[in-house]
Amino acid sequence: MANNEDLLKKIIAHAKEYGFVFQSSEIYDGLSAVYDYAQNGSELKKNIRDYWWKSMVQMHENIVGIDTAIFMHPSIWKASGHVDAFNDPMIDNKDSKKRYRADVLIEDHLAKIEGKIDKEVAKAAKRFGDSFDEKQFKETNPRVLANLEKINGIKNRLYPAMDNNDMDAIKTLIEDVGIVCPMSGSKNWTEVRQFNLMFSTKMGSTAEGANEIFLRPETAQGIFVNYLNVQKTGRMKIPFGIAQTGKAFRNEIVARQFIFRMREFEQMEMQFFVRPGEEMKWYEYWKEQRMEWHKSLGIPAEKFRFHDHDKLAHYANAAADIEFDFPMGFKELEGIHSRTDFDLSAHEEHSGKKLRYHDPELNQSYVPYVVETSIGLDRMFLAILSNSYTEEDLGEGNSRVVMKLPPVLAPYKIAVFPLTKKDGLPDKAREIMDKLKSDYMCFYEEKDAIGKRYRRHDAIGTPYCVTVDHQTLEDNTVTIRERDSMVQERISIDDISGVVRERLVG
Ligand code: GAP
To answer: How many angstroms does the Cα of residue 263 sit away from the middle of ligand 1?
Structure first.
């Protein structure tokens, strides 16, 4: 459902109405690009985090998890390159007063040209049917070739300009290709300026003695600076990994599209330490593993694709994104980066401390190379919401909105309802609830007609609703309703736990 801005609006409204995500500081008109997770959202977020942690840490004997501080020594950000290079080029349109990332304006322009090529290919594929040879068509069709030449021409100017911090060249490129402001339609641009994305604050009680420190823009550096502590205390042997989840902060120039690009967000990162020269093998391994992780949640494979980077970050020798088909189209969800020995070597240099590993098999000491997997928890949350949000026409004028969340991630696994508030049914329902709640997040409800209660739990994605009726009092059976099929079955109370568990084992 690409490019469906309406769908994004619906998801935002649903997330608010059903207690998933609220705008931060809403009663003060909100704080831009900062969000709060509500009662159902925080459960869903925790379940995504736990699912990641389980697959990365619990399931890998050679990966351990840590939890490092947000505040770190300011020299760390000098060593990592973030003080000098964690910049985005920004530009303002003088008519609309809107601010943009200059490189994103150019990337969007490139995407438009790529869209034209895709259209040509789709048209030709339709015309030629089974005999269509896409590769040959792209290599020979004059319109495609002209557009490819345009793309290469732009990339050949953009990337060197970005690498050399040449803001004037970026401005000239924007003017030369005729990019207009999407709001005002005008070409009345300011100069392009570099903007560092790190937030800073002061640590220390007196103004004179206070030091400027940064809020971490990635969790990875907490792993790098603890790498040797963990290796030694955990007796880790290469190859091994260190994982961590936690908050990161970036003063994004343009932060929009709900929780896709935030100024305060959470990352789930894993640094995998390997022998120099073996990094490409592990890079390919983790690309594949991470794609399998996404598919293990039951999300269709065609919703994901790899995007290999042409332009590499200052620390990488190979990088790819796993992109997800968000309502705004395919966008980055996760990054897999081969970070070489850049970070550890830089920390050796800046701290003056050796960060080498003694490899007993090779009888050699070296600075390990690192392959990183880095996913935004909030982005994963948005991917899950977008994939799960379903409007269903049930016929005869009835419809429902159902969040078809992977059951393992659902905030509540079971809702327990007494059919009525009378005849001892609530007591029986409470008894069942007490039996289940130490194993599962359960929700008890007795208000409103049963159909309304089902709809409320469809909307928050509860996979099972259990209803206690008069027959329950006679034979200890209940009806259990499955969220997606709406099929109801009569089962024994003792079997509820087993039925639910079966769905949760992915
Ligand atoms: N340690 C490597 C690193 O931070 P990144 O590509 O800048 O790499 C990794 O970020 C992931 O963090 C992204 O794929 C995205 O999911 C998430 N992310 C980055 N910036 C974000 C933002 N402003 N809001 C939400 N998620 C963000």
So the answer is: 11
